[in-house]
Amino acid sequence: MAFGWLSGAAGDIAHGAATTILLIVVTTLAGTVLSILGAAGRRNGPVLLKRAIASYVEVMRNTPFLVQLFFIFFGLPSLGVRLDPVLAAMLAMTLNMAAYTIEIVGAGLDAVPGGQTEAALALGLRPRQVFIKIVLPQALKVIYPALTSQIVIMMLESAVVSQIAVRELTYEADMLQARTFRSFETYFVVTLVYLAMSMGLRRLLVTGGRRALGAGVT
Amino acid sequence: MIEFTLWDIVRNLLLAARWTVLLSLAAFVGGGIVGMVVLFFRIAKNKWSRRFASGYIALFQGTPLLMQLFLMFFGLPMLGLRIEPWTAAVLGLTFFASAYLAEIWRSGVDALPRGQWDAGASLGLHYLQELRLIILPQAFSITRAPTVGFLVQLIKSTALTSIIGFEELVRTSNAINNATFEPFKVYGLVALIFFVMCFPLTQYARALEQRAAAH
Predict the structure, then answer these.
(1) What is the pTM (predicted TM-score) of this model?
(2) What is the pLDDT of residue A132?
(3) Is-contact B92 B65, C-beta < 8 A?
């Protein structure tokens, strides 16, 4: 084993890690918003919408992310939608994550007692205010740990988007090992970077959640 | 250019799907066996043994499966073993599965009341007998739903072995797509085949969960 190449590669690894972080930040924000809309639609929407959301969740949860990614990146252009790799990766990651978090958010909404809605309505709040100000914050507090796990899982899964030439951490690793002929050492170092990132991300989310949503979040 | 009919595509995909099924089964069985060993370490009385198992699980759950597969594929030849994509795929997925299964079953062991161990001890059973006759059967029984759920995840994860060159469903579909230039159809069919494999298991896991909740 030899790690002499590492000093010249630090910049590439850092650049790749930054792209991975960008991907997961965008996915987390877009995926959370989408899953709140999806979960609300699944509870209160018209029957057709409910069914559409339920099927969407089943299809995404029962097919591999890699296939979804290829379908979006290679398949959509034949319908006239051409996406650059980064956008395709963000879209695929968001759509995949939403399928899991719709279920999680839905469970959180179910966990808020009905009396909360009744009380808020009795106080004269409009239905939308009731959802945004009363029900949603309580639901998010309940599901926050599950949401955190899902975000970390998605970050690890994002390694796959290297396959459509998004220049994130795994892609940089592929390039490095082709240059240095030190495949094992390269992937070993990059695996450690991923490990540090997933532990750091988890800690950050737990601390941030505790501050934003109040105590009780572990 | 050779013309591919829909049937040609479907037939080739289905033939490749056999490898996906075989790989999933091999990794599930292998992961179950290694997972049992990890479980023994994870619930042992020795503190260092428990720490070692926790570290093992955290390592596999905290790194991308794709990296684990690369390390297998490029690492084993350094140990002097000649490695083929199939070996790297089975070994990589086996270790990956062992960490998840050990953690799932550990939650089952933890969920059992302390009295089960005490009752076993008072009947004169020694540690291994307690595990074999009392603890593990109950732990497996209450974690059946997440175990089946993980099998679905494992089947989907086999798609990644296409990247290290194992000829399964996704790798075959890439080749077919390169010949037919019909990505929408080809990847749509691949998704459909995966769905047909995974959806019944998902439903089964859900039924098990509901049965458990009803008790």
Answers:
(1) 0.93
(2) 92
(3) yes
